[in-house]
Amino acid sequence: MGGAVVGAATPGTAVGDAIRGTAVGAAPVPLSVLDLVTVGVGRTAADALRTSVDIARLAERRGFHRHWVAEHHSMPGVASSSPAVILAHLAAHTERIRLGSGGVMLPNHAPLVIAEQFGTLEALAPGRVDLGLGRAPGTDGATAAALRRAEHLAEGADDFPQQLAELTRFLDDDFPDGHPYARIHAVPGPVQGPSARPPIWLLGSSGFSARLAGVLGLPFAFAHHFSAQNTIPALDLYRESFRPSQVLDAPYALIGVSALAADEEREARRQVLTGALSMVRLRTGRPGLIPTPEEAEAYEFSAMEREFADGWLRNVVHGTPDAVRTGLDDLQKRTGADELMLTANAHGGDARLRSYELIADAYGLPGIGHDGVVQS
Question: Once rounded to an integer, what is the mean pLDDT over residues 228-245?
Answer without folding.
Answer: 97
